[in-house]
Structure formats: structure tokens, C-alpha cells
Amino acid sequence: MHIPDGLLPPAVSISGYAITGGVTWFSLRQINKQTNYQEEIPKASLLTAAFFVASLIHIPIPPFSIHLVLNGVMGLVLGYYAFPGILIGLFFQAMFFQHGGLSTLGINAIIMGVPALFAHYIWSFRTISFFHSSFRKSILAFLAGGLSLFFSALIFVFITINNISPDLDIDAEKTAIFTSLIGYGVQALIEGILTVMLISFLEKVKPELIGLENSEGGS
Question: How much is the pTM?
């Protein structure tokens, strides 16, 4: 899902940086409105480090090999901190592992960061009385973790399908890109299940980390 250097036209890469700049500004503005926002920085740093390392954990699912992304978990736990955290994680992934390029850093941040904010908004439904039971909160967590990953895959497919180089076999490239959605679908299920497991654990031991203590009295 990391788009490398040279795959996209310069105009698309520049547009990616412009959109990422706007989303980063919006996220930082929302963070600045929070009381004691500095207290969240250690948590954001820890999960950014987890996001950075997750790309090294490959899961063989023949004929695919996938790795964890955790952008849904980032959005669910960190809220608006998730986008700048993912941007920083992607920068270091590009620098140290060559996962994605520096020219495509803005586009990759959109692919993985915007769905993280989507996960944050899904999890915000936990405050509605209908979702106060543990089972229904688990459904929200699964949707936040799984759908955010698949949303990322759809953005990736849309961008790559519309920017295939005419020097390549366009039909073959389209087939390969659409086939990748099968692997991403499996990955979305895995990340959804992992998110449910993580949220169930945090709900028992540290509910305030996922915004449950204030809204439901720690239930």
C-alpha cells in the first residue's frame, strides 16, 4: 500500500503534499483546542512507534504476504493525533526501510491517515446509548479497524488505477491492482479482529485510553 517514488506523475505527488498539509493543519488545530493536549503526546509517540514497526511484521497468506498497518487502531485511540503520527511514521519508514517514497509521502499519508480519522469518527458513536453494551462497542471497534484499512486500500487502488504509466501493460496492471483488493480484504478482517481484541483489553485495564471512562463511567 506504500506507493514508491517514480510511480506517480509529479502533479499528483505535489497535490498529495498540498492535501496532506491541509489535513495536518486541521488535525493540529483540533488538537490545540483540547485541554492539556500535551498529556496525550507520550501515548501518540508510543503508537506512532508501533505503526512504524508494524510494516516489518509480515503475515504469509498465500498467494499474498501482508503486513499490519494499524491505522484504524491509531485513529480509534489517538483521534486527531493519528494523522500527524502516521505522517511521521511514514517518513521514517521511507527513510529506513524504503517503504514508500519521499516524493509520494503526501499521497501515502492520505492513503493511511485519512481513514484513521474515519476510524476516530466511527468510534465516536460509542457515546450513543445504543452502543453502550460491550458487544456493540466491539462491533464499532471492528468497523473502525477493518473499514479504515479497506478504505485505505480503495484510495490506493483509485490513485494507482488512474495513474498507470502508458509504457506498461495497462490491462495487466489493472488486473493485478484489483486482485490486490482480495489480500487487503483479508487484511481488513485481521485488523478488525485485532482492534476488537485490543479494545476489549483496554476496556478492562485502562478504559480512559480509549475514551470510555468519562462517557460511561468506566463501564
Answer: 0.88
Q: What is the pLDDT of residues 137-178, one digit of tens each?
A: 999 999 999 999 999 999 999 999 998 877 778 888 888 888
- Which residue has cell 484489483? 178
Task: Evaluate the omega torsion of the peptide bond into residue 207 and state whether it is cis, within 30 degrees of 0.
Answer: no
Cβ atoms of 182 and 64 closer than 8 Å: yes
Instruction: Give 122-181 as a DSSP string.
Output: HHGGGGSGGG-SHHHHHHHHHHHHHHHHHHHHHHHHHHHHTT--TTS-HHHHHHHHHHHH
* Amino acid of residue 126: R
Supply 126's cell numbers: 460509542
- What angle is formed at CA 152 by the lines to CA 110 and CA 172, rounded to 5 degrees? 110
